[in-house]
Amino acid sequence: MSDPSYRGTCFCGAVEIRVTGTPKAMGYCHCASCRAWSAAPVNAFSLWSPESVSVTKGAEHVGEFHKTPQSHRQFCRVCGGHILAQHPPWNLVDVYSAVIPDFEHRPALHVNYQEKVLSVRDGLPKFKDLPKDFGGSGEMLPE
Ligand SMILES: [Zn+2]
Ligand SMILES: [Zn+2]
To answer: Cystine design at 58: which of 14, 94, 128, 139 (Cβ 3.0–4.6 Å)?
Structure first.
């Protein structure tokens, strides 16, 4: 059986991507950078191996912005819609779950909850910053 794959597009459709297989992690990030970049109170992320993610159309329209070396944020130059963020230190790519509508987002955790502007009482673990595997303190906060 072949791995499942999901199609995604930017806001206007000039850029298309495909993700294949299973993400390494899914959850919500509450950090100020994700909030500002997504223009939303919380960002739903899905983290994939770089080999799982490809741009299938409109690669020439993809722009990239680095505020920090940890996150190479990619967007469509035509519509300004956001597509994904590469995280080279972790060798992972965050494909924003909203960009791949047929993919079922099954969150397991919340990260950077100390920066939250929106409380989410869904019973999932709330990491103050990041899990230890990702260089964080691993500390938890109440919902
Ligand atoms: Zn676009
Ligand atoms: Zn974040």
So the answer is: 14
